Amino acid sequence: MGIVKIGDDLHEELRKSSAVMCRSINAQAEFWIKVGMLAEANPTLPFTEIIAAQLRNADVEEPQIKTA
């Protein structure tokens, strides 16, 4: 485990996002880092496909959105 220094503005964005997503600040940072790494490695995939692939790899059933 290491320490990563980030600017105050980015830390504030992490704090806000972590509250909305019900994650700790560290978990939110890890999520952003992982998604960013996957996006760089797969530049043609949209965010939703990256997340769907991660859910499939984790053997988690993808949530279905019900429309009216």
Describe this structure in words.
This protein has 68 residues and is an all-alpha fold. It has one domain (8-57). It contains three helices and no strands. It is globular, with a radius of gyration of 14 Å. The model has no long low-confidence stretch (mean pLDDT 88).
Strand % is: under 5%
SSE order, one letter for each helix or strand: HHH
> Biggest β-sheet, characterized?
none
Question: What fraction, in percent, of the residue positions are helical?
Answer: 55-70%
Number of structural domains:
1
Number of helices: 3
Structural class, please?
mainly alpha
Report how far the terminal alpha carbons are from each other: 46 Å
Radius of gyration, in Å, reads 14 Å
Give the low-pLDDT segments: none
**Form type:** globular
Q: How many strand units?
A: 0
Round the mean pLDDT to the nearest integer and report it: 88
Observed structural traits:
mainly alpha
Summarize this structure briefly.
By secondary structure, this protein is an all-alpha fold. It is built from three helices and no strands.
Topology:
Layout lengths: L7 H14 L3 H17 L5 H11 L11
